[in-house]
Amino acid sequence: MNPLDNIRVVLVHTSNPGNIGAAARAMKNMGLSQLYLVAPHRYPADEATWRAANAADLLARAVVVETFDEAVAGCALVVGTSARERSIPWPLLDARAACQRIYGEARRHGVALVFGREDRGLTNEELQKCQLHINIPTDAAYSSLNLAMAVQVVAYELRMAHVSGQLPADPMADWDLDCADAEAIERLFTHMEQALGAMGFLKADAPKQTMTRLRRLFQRTRLDVMEVNILRGILTSAQYWVRKAGGDGRDR
Fold first, then answer.
1. How confident is the model at residue 24 (pLDDT cuts 50, 70, 90)?
2. Helices H, strands E: what count in the chain?
């Protein structure tokens, strides 16, 4: 299997249909074929077809969904592009280093490579659903990068990883179980927030920095399917004992 076929490019809330077409062209130039669109403002559109040139077949196969979660469903690695520094930093790599890792993991499971809105990128909530962030180190004097140009830069680095054949060692290549996918990880975080709230550890009226930091902890720890089940079993047991002690087992 060609690992590039296991990588999907996700464009979130794209406002200019021309950027969708140009991104499709950039993808086809570099051998990528899976395009997912999250609630594009205008699509289908003639401008997208014009800008795609000979990549109109990618547009015809593009999967259009309403939410971020639908776009990354089934992927065990979700990578978000980010141009801004965050108050709580996340694992961050430049495009070259990130694409070596993405290509390596795409040999084993689906990978989602997510690009945000033209004017403000991905939201903090969306970025917290990613295990890894990519930054393209542009010149500080003019750091604005067109969406399709960003797709082209990252797609090129994936192509170079593909043709070079020189990949970093994959510590999970011989793992006994598959990595948990994005849906399972999100269910874990929802369960965790409910259980910690029931125990009184999280307060409904307090800032949610704690859950953000817990997300960061578990997102950088590549949980497999059994590990997720074990953690959820622990949370279920904790909720049981909270109810037995007179609580309701739900967030308060």
1. very high
2. 10, 7
